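Memo to structure team: turn this sequence into structure tokens by end of day. - J.P.
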Amino acid sequence: MPVDAAMLFRPIRTLILLAVAFGAGMLYERQQQAEACEEMGGAIRGMFCE
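Reply from structure team:
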């Protein structure tokens, strides 16, 4: 029974897409938090609003 190469790549592709989506979500959330911090008159230092 031959195994199709695309079938072997499918789980790896799914993991890569999940990692990219997670990274994009993290960047989006950090940007939203930075904007909220600046609106309150603070500044982001490291990962904290001061």
